[in-house]
Specification:
Layout (H helix, E strand, L loop, with lengths): L4 H15 L7 H12 L4 E4 L6 H10 L5 E5 L6 H5 E6 L4 E6 L6 E5 L6 H4 L3 H6 L1 E4 L2 E4 L5 E6 L12 H4 L4 E4 L5 H11 L17 H13 L4 H16 L3 E3 L3 H17 L7 H12 L4 E2 L1 H5 L4 H11 L5
Parallel strand pairs: 1-8, 1-9, 2-5, 5-8
Antiparallel strand pairs: 3-4, 6-7, 10-11
Length: 318
């Protein structure tokens, strides 16, 4: 039986409620993570150390019954450490695949920018096709495969910038900032109720694999009005002609934004999208995909500044 919008909203509320038992504040961040999950996208979380990026990914895995895997990226990590390798079995006289940690449902790629480009490239096929090729054989990772990657923008020693091709495979780049004062007080207050060093509050699994699949089907069934499609296309094309942008976004970016818009509408209980959905998701979906030109860099403009200007110049459908 197909999931209804009301059931979908109830599922999302249950997920939010469990995650908020551990993550104080960050309501918009949690919502964007859920949008990415139901839109079949991947998320890149960027923020200074100690802002619960890794903890957020772990919480999401705990509130579902999906398999969870974690890769701590380091400079000496090799592609085989991610994908797995075929090892020769002397008893059977044949090669046998030893699967790597990428064979999971929710993958936490922790500090992804610490791995060299050779290792980062191991994720390209997995993130785009949800499959990996090892020794000429393609292995499916499943339709639920979801990557949450983290990186620290402050520390540059021993890090490698992510290739543009890999950045383009992330639906969102979410900026994780420090919580506000009330949220920090809530975090510290929770800690005083537990012995020092004890793990965080245990969470309850509220979403099964079947529920996620039904959520995907519901989002897929939402159709975008022609005016919304044209609005998305006009915005993405505007990034390619803007004088402050050296390289604009790809068609893949427009497709990804359209999927995210459908998921946001569903989470809001609507079977139709609004221009507000596009405007709310334009920055997180595009900030990592544009390359600023020298003029913008000299003026100290950020990707968000340039994208906001493009958004303000483009007329929204009425």
């Amino acid at each position: 039986m197909a999931m209804t919008l009301t059931e979908f909203q109830s599922l999302a509320d249950a997920l939010r409620g469990e995650i908020r038992k551990v993550i104080a504040g960050q309501a918009e961040l949690i919502d964007h993570l859920l949008i990415a999950l139901f839109a079949r996208g991947h998320c890149l979380l960027e923020g200074p150390p100690g802002t619960a990026k890794t903890l957020l990914a772990q919480c999401l895995s705990q509130v579902t019954t999906l398999d969870f895997g974690r890769i701590q990226f380091t400079p000496d990590l090799m592609p085989g450490d991610v994908l797995g390798v075929s090892l020769f079995n002397f008893q059977t006289n044949e090669f046998r695949l030893t699967r790597g940690p990428i064979f999971t449902d929710i993958l936490l790629a922790d500090e992804i920018n610490r791995a060299p480009p050779k290792t980062q490239s191991a994720l390209l096929q997995a993130m785009n096709e949800r499959a990996v090729t090892i020794d000429d054989k393609t292995h499916s990772l499943g339709h639920e495969f979801f990557v949450i990657a983290t990186q620290n923008p402050i520390e540059q020693h021993g890090t490698y910038p992510l290739p543009e091709a890999q950045l383009d495979r992330f639906l969102f780049k979410l900026i994780v900032d420090f919580p506000d004062r009330d949220a920090e007080i809530a975090i510290l207050s929770r800690g005083t109720l537990r012995p020092v060093g004890e793990d965080a509050t245990p969470l309850t699994s509220v979403m099964t694999r079947e529920a996620l699949q039904q959520g995907h089907a519901l989002v897929d069934a939402i159709r975008l009005d022609a005016t919304i499609v044209q609005y998305i296309v006009d915005l993405t094309r505007a990034t390619r002609s803007d004088g402050e942008v050296l390289h604009g976004v790809s068609t893949r970016a427009a497709v990804a934004l359209a999927g995210a818009v459908r998921a946001r509408a569903a989470l809001d209980g609507r079977d139709y999208a609004l221009p507000d959905d596009v405007q709310a998701l334009f920055l997180p979906a595009m900030r990592h995909r544009i390359v600023l030109g020298p003029t913008a860099e000299i003026d100290g403009r950020s990707p968000d500044d340039v994208l906001t200007a493009i958004l303000n110049r483009q007329d929204a459908p009425r």
